[in-house]
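Notes to self after the call with IL:
- keep both proteins in one doc
- input above output, always
- annotate only the second one for now

Protein 1:
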Amino acid sequence: MSVPDYMQCAEDHQTVLVVVQPVGIVPEDQFFRIYKRIASVAQVSIRDSQRNLYIRYRHHYLPENNDWGDFQTHRKVVGLICVTTCGSGKEWPQTSERFHGQKEVFGATLYDSRLLVFGLQGEIAEQQRTDVAFYPSYDDCPDVEKKVEDFVESIFIVLESKRLDRATDKSGDKIPLLCVPFEKKDFVGLDTDSRHYKKRCQGRMRKHVGDLCLQAGMLQDALVHYHMAVELLRSVNDFLWLGAALEGLCSASVIFHYPGGTAGKAAGRNPSAAQGQAADAGKRHRPGALTTNGISADTSSEIGRAKNCLSPEDIIEKYKEAISYYGKYKNAGVIELEACVKAVRVLAIQKRAMEASEFLQNAVYINLGQLSEEEKIQRYSILSELYYLIGFHRKSAFFKRVAAMQCVAPTIPEPGWRACYKLLLETLPGYSLSLDPKDFSKGAHRGWAAVQMRLLHELVYASRRMGNPGLSVRHLSFLLQTMLDFLSDQEKKEVTQSLENYTSKCPGGMEVITLPDGLRLHPVPFTKLPIVRSVKLLDLPVSLRPHKQKGLMENSMSTKSPFIYSPIIMHNRGEERNKKIDFQWVQGDVCEVQLMVYNPMPFELRVENMGLLTSGVEFESLPAALSLPAESGLYPVTLVGVPRTAGNITVNGYHTSVFGVTSDCLLDSLTSVRTSGCLVEVIPSLPRLQLSTSLPRSAHPLQPSKEELSSSVSVQLFNGETQQLTITLENIGSEDLETLEITSKISNTKDGISVTGLPISSPLRQVLKPRAETRPPGSESSKTDYNHVKMLEAVMTFKYSGGAGKVEGYYRDLTLGLHVDVEPSVFFTRVSTLPATSTRQCHLLLDVFNSTEHELTVSAQNNQDLVLHASECQRMAIQVDKFDFDTLPQPDQETVRYTSLKLLEEERLHAQASMINSTLGITWDIPSVRRKGEASVEGVLNQLVLDHLQLAPLQWDVMVNGKPCDCDIIADCKVGDAVPLEVKLTNRSKNTVGPFALTVVPFQDYQNGVQNYDLQDAVTFIGSNTFYIDTVNPSEESLCLGALLFLYSGDFYLNIKFQDDSVGKEPGAGQGKELPLSWFGLPSIHIRAQEAPMEAGA
């Protein structure tokens, strides 16, 4: 016997073997339909008996195996069922002859046989025959199972007669010697009358009777016969049959202990219902000891049964002993192998995996001679299943892989690559290998990576030989993704080269591959090529960020959580990704997502077509291609796209194309990726302005400014210089611009820069340092202070909106930073005043310092130019009309109420200085560099100078002979003529003044320091020389009239003295005593008296 039955199990010893075979031409599908119905009759309850007969069906059985039927009766073919197709009566003789020929193959052992004929009708089909059943067709055969049951009952009758015949002790008859095929030649010439020979015959026959009893359903009788056979055969050292008796004893004990069977799902035989029926039948046995009918279920008989039945532990020991005896015979290798398999199945039920592995290890080394490749595959496959049965999954996978390699052995003319691939897939669980990449993202790596890589390589090769490059790409991608950490640098290069070769013929994608057996191969995204460490959604550039109108913020505020922040929440990566980011993207504008990536490969990694995967709104991804250097470390990559609709957009991941494999990498499966949120709101579209200026862009940002600027420009100016700035705004968006607001602010100090409309200028006021640090009046400054370069900055903001975004209340800001480096030009180191000849004018003396490195010219209105060399200081005198500061606009009451006195005073002084600057019109010009500007005296003006420059509130006008006297004007008169004198007072103050008394005192000035006031004989007054002025209300005038008479010729001067007559009167009658002296600046009066010309003839 050369072909083992790997499906054998211990309970098969109680079955009878029936072969079902087709005769003639029978369609395969129809044959197996009938075979399946026949095989369903696996257990038959014998009528008039409480015993069951178990049948084992085979559709293919080697005749040489039948020769071992005396050794173990369950190997003997006792029944034959033939299935044939016969279309007409003419074919019947030939069919019948074929049936008889088939019976002759197993004729020596057959108990009975049947022929099932399909398709034959007529007289022949109507014949009543016990061994033939006729059916019109394969579909019209309702009683096949009934025929099989009758057939089985006939087999039982023969079996029972043989059992009774062999079990009867015929002491007078000579017991034949039962042999196995290879023993017959060894027993030729033996002494058949020896006691040793007779014991051998008795022992073998007793074992044979035990087999028949076991098949006939008499378990207790079988146990007794096996025990007797063991004793007899052990005494004569008949080891082969002793092993068979021990195995029979084990099988009977297994049937008793494990009525559910040991075959498991693999054999698919002995249903639990059948076993339950067998147990019920046993319980119906009448009480008593060993009988011909079976085994009693009575308690007393259980004791007797337990004596003969082996314990679970003894069963294994006896199996070991039996296998050791089989091992003594080279020709019993199949018997030994099958016994090992049976023992393993028993041990699997007993959960004794280590002992079972010893039996299997023994089975591996049993030599069965020259096996065909198919037999080797079957052997390794069964070993794999048995190892799996006892929980040795990796060992099971090893033998399954050996079987797979056997399918494509070099000796096979047509290698079975599909079978090899299928078996390799079945080995994956044993090596802790799953083809789902998600299983590799959870925890530490499981299994031996080196073995797993070898297996994956074999899957790649097998799928390629199958002619399925798509499978090869999928397995190779899986190898590269999951085993990347275990590949050497050389292996990484080799695997990627192979993958590129495969993908050049069949690109890899994200589709699910379904194999013919239903196995689904999930897509393998390359999340490690490159490795992404973090994903950050970027805000729009400053110039494009949308802002919500303040009056419309309530709706967005309601979405914020009122709960206090807890760091525990942030441990949940899923909540992080679903968190809404606090900025917005705009429909139609390019949006950016920054990825920090790392190339783990030892060579340059080219990533093609890398883009974003989003959901929520329509999004146009703009793919990028990048090349990462070998082992690059963290490398920033920015992916861009354009949202085409408004709403909430979620960045779910990214897609790549690496080595010809397209991957969709989702962030949900990348637990190690850090992100601050992947959900952002997309608002409706807005206009998009682009700003350009006539000045160069600034090389450095504004230092004091905390806000981000859209753009910034820089310019270098001299103090007082003006620079024209042209700003161009262009709408490059798709929405119309509907609103535009322009504002400006100084970012570092309130002094020093003026933004009026679009032009900007350097300081109009002379400020060396911020105003808070201005030196007190009269202090001197060193020349080094004037060489200080001041940096001034301002920000212009363009607020605009339009389109659908404006409807939703959004706008954009465009900010322009202005950076001005101010170099000193002209400084006034000192200022003072001198009175002029006119009471309404004065002389302003300025010490001018040139702090530049160039020669410059200083000019003023109605004054000569002053040329100053570098670092030169000169004095400039300017005659100016006094200023009426009361005409300056005054702050309203509300401003006065809410503004500090200090600030009001500063604003008043600034307004006065601005009036003085505009009147003076001092400018400077540097011809060598073609630069010019204005100069300001504001910083050096003090209160004393301002008082001298201010026009007095009481305005005095003196008229002599009807002509005003001021500014060195000489009034001419004639001696002896009355000279009219008018003094007019105009009250320009806000209060009532007076009364006053004015006294006119004439004198002569000899220009040598001597003044003569004794002029009673030279000048006389017509009337009184004292004028009285009553109270004068604000904005009113008072006129005093008088006359003088000059008696001699000469130059005379009039000195007008005043007296405040309000002193000593009631309070409030006048404010003269409180008025400053400067208010009474009366002009000097110069009168030249001349002799009247002599009349002719006088």
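Protein 2 (the one to annotate):
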Amino acid sequence: MAVPARTCGASRPDPARTALRWPSRGSRLGPGARRPAAGPPRPLALLLPPLLLLPLLAAPGASAYSFPQQHTMQHWARRLEQEIDGVMRIFGGVQQLREIYKDNRNLFEVQENEPQKLVEKVAGDIESLLDRKVQALKRLADAAENFQKAHRWQDNIKEEDIVYYDAKADAELDDPESEDMERGSKASTLRLDFVEDSNFKNKVNYSYTAVQIPTDIYKGSTVILNELNWTEALENVFMENRRQDPTLLWQVFGSATGVTRYYPATPWRAPKKIDLYDVRRRPWYIQGASSPKDMVIIVDVSGSVSGLTLKLMKTSVCEMLDTLSDDDYVNVASFNEKAQPVSCFTHLVQANVRNKKVFKEAVQGMVAKGTTGYKAGFEYAFDQLQNSNITRANCNKMIMMFTDGGEDRVQDVFEKYNWPNRTVRVFTFSVGQHNYDVTPLQWMACTNKGYYFEIPSIGAIRINTQEYLDVLGRPMVLAGKEAKQVQWTNVYEDALGLGMVVTGTLPVFNLTQDGPGEKKNQLILGVMGIDVALNDIKRLTPNYTLGANGYVFAIDLNGYVLLHPNLKPQTTNFREPVTLDFLDAELEDENKEEIRRSMIDGNKGHKQIRTLVKSLDERYIDEVTRNYTWVPIRSTNYSLGLVLPPYSTFYLQANLSDQILQVKYFEFLLPSSFESEGHVFIAPREYCKDLNASDNNAEFLKNFIELMEKVTPDSKQCNNFLLHNLILDTGITQQLVERVWRDQDLNTYSLLAVFAATDGGITRVFPNKAAEDWTENPEPFNASFYRRSLDNHGYVFKPPQQDALLRPLELENDTVGILVSTAVELSLGGRTLRPAVVGVKLDLEAWAEKFKVLASNRTHQDQPQKCGPNSHCEMDCEVNNEDLLCVLIDDGGFLVLSNQNHQWDQVGRFFSEVDANLMLALYNNSFYTRKESYDYQAACAPLPPGNLGAAPRGIFVPTIADFLNLAWWTSAAAWSLFQQLLYGLIYHSWFQADPAEAEGNPEVRESSCVMKQTQYYFGSVNASYNAIIDCGNCSRLFHAQRLINSNLLFVVAEKPLCSQCEAGRLLQKETHCPADGPEQCELVQRPRYRRGPHICFDYNATEDTSDCGRGASFPPSLGVLVSLQLLLLLGLPPRPQPQVHAHPSRRL
């Protein structure tokens, strides 16, 4: 039985299950009828014995005919089964193909997949790959610390003194509004030449590093220039690392000042809008710069918070949330006289993408009212942090308070909860421009090992919501070598175009001292990172020996997949990691929960389970047997798993040593042989290094043939296993043509094509002309019919796929066909395997007519039975198609064949779209079971803005109440408003900016979303029985029976007379879940098992907490502010002081 899916929104009864209740549910007609369940009184007619009832229920308008008896319909079912089996035996060639394999037994060997050895070898290979990156990381981090320690700080350093390649220079030169064009760049920026490099998917220069500096940081500041000066020496270390390991990809140093220096040099990917990239907000930097965090954010929403200040607070909280990773836990609350959570989360929750989205949406609903009550806010926060009954990070604990100011220091609260040990750090943020005394806020931070920040305007938000990481890094720096541990990140999208990567990170510490005998510096310099592309890790896994349904996967300590065939995000966001839980990548059940927990705990294991799997086209569910084997990848946070079906324990390995035979079989790949031997599609695999890939299979085959004329299958540049198996399968499928297909007349049995597909990568379609309408994937391992046939016994029907919103099938030129396929199982020396799938393509119209005849009361020679006015006859699917509906439905609930001509163009649709009343009855009678799941990797078209025609939402428009509020005028808020107006004009809508667009991905047209998927599969009912759909005066009789050795359900029913039962319609189409997936408020109450990093650095007795942001703040001069704004309006912007808040000890 499937595990119930989580539901979108609150729990509620299943509408489909409750939509239809029949008093007649137990009143089945004929032998094998089900007994009624207890329920309300039933109508008298329904209490009659079935045999007495049937004559009373003749179809209206057809008084001479009665609904068929059960034994009659069982007879029809047997005729259908025999016809299908007969055609497949003659044309499918299963037995003949078995004989062909046995006749060619000397051309291949049977090899065994030993799961434990396989998974241990792959884990060892991945460990070796990552270890080489670790050694490079350590060389870089050690060198950086030594270079910085030897560097002499220069107060008078100038831009023209520094020579470097500015990665954004080319884009800025093309942009007349860029910083350098406005000011006239003084820095000596290198102009480089680049060459295309396929490893980087980019143009690179291996002789230089590149530098990226965030847009909101002034390149000419003393801090930045000194940073550029000493980091230049890293260039040689980067190059030496590459010399030792040519497979290295991006090597990056992310500085705590915001500077990024990376190697090799490549131009920065220019964004479509403003570039908001800041290395300190990248997932890998955050993970490397501090230990995990338990954070409570409290926001002052008292009445003194003006409209603009509240907006600044909301944006600040959202930016703060973006500095958290999946190793962190967080909650957000607002307070005035009392505190309350802003969302449905009542305790700390994991700072994953979906939870943060809930917070961000909830924060926008905060409203300012009441009086300031710091005590209520801090007591709430401390209570949250002291709750030990929940899952949390259990490392750094902190409170982040955003306020516009106040006088209360709440010392009694700190004495009660935090002193003398001060295990919770307090960070305070003074938001907006005002004249309040900030001393209490400074005192709170300084007496609780935190830091005080000011956010007077938009420009200060991003900088000041991430500077707290410097404070959290102090214990790491003071711990020294003990904290120098490489961590590996979640999967995320590389900003420079590598695709999905993981990054090894290592913190870099400031080893300088201010003077002889002075305390050790406690600042983190930054984080060193080296990328590893997921594709490089995938290359270490077995490609094709595991079969179509075998695979390797890997997960991290959060249970997120690093490798998995279902890891296919449709959109990626620069700012967030790609987090797909193992239990969301597969269909969740208790066995998989147990496997996941064991892997997270770093254990080895093996388990055979029965589980549900989703088909590749996501239309079907199969219950299958799978063997899971797993081991930890040492020296990392990852664990590796291997999944094998029992039939993939063995595989074929071709041994074509006879070159004459190689040439003979190879000739059957030439298009000149297709007319007589059938069309051949070859799987687009990497057979040789120099083989040019192409999405067009004909072109790919042409490239393959041209390459094979230059090299042999035994060439060192080629994958001999893939090539030999491909050529062997070419010859074996050709023998199938010769022995079976060529001498058969397909038209006699109304077949459009016959076909065979193999593990070796061959799909042969006969005759050649049928290839014109062949739409299946040329890679058998990626073809849904192939994978399902391996997992199912018997014949698998696959109707053409069509959506309810699309136009019906075009039934012209007999081109519409239904695939029927089955696996070829070999038994060789007691070893069983399934190396191929064979099948036929039925002509839809011809088989629909044949279906009518087979489900009728005549033999092949008889004419349709006529029933006179004085005789009694049973209805059948041919003569009485105006009164009787007869259909074949597959195991997913999709229409395959119908006796109704007008339904032929609906073949392939979910049957509820054809006859909702009947499909609901089948579901309620347990012929079908439903499985709901969620696709967290979907992409949705952006929603149209809801404020068309309104002013830009990023600009605050004061209300009349604001104008009448004296405090609003006497504070500097009015000038802040003016500044915000200018920002709004420049940045369009900074507050509401789309992160994907802001981060600079011009390709993004869709946004990530959660889609709810519903699949149906056969339930527990295998018997044949009749039932009545009770709809008052519109009751319908129906009969349903599974066809043995196939995935078909045969259904015969009276046609509906009215639509009283049409209310309950089952949905199969994928739908957008309005709450972005299962209700997050419910999910956090039962969090999935996870483990955080095993070492925590949140305390050091020698930490100096005196640097806590005591710097005096002064409001800007009114005259100066007016002058600045007028200059901005005139288009002559002066250079403001940089928003780099360097601590005094940042002077390097």
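Annotation: The first helix runs from residue 15 to 19. Residues 1-63, 945-1004, 1111-1148 have pLDDT under 50 and may be disordered.
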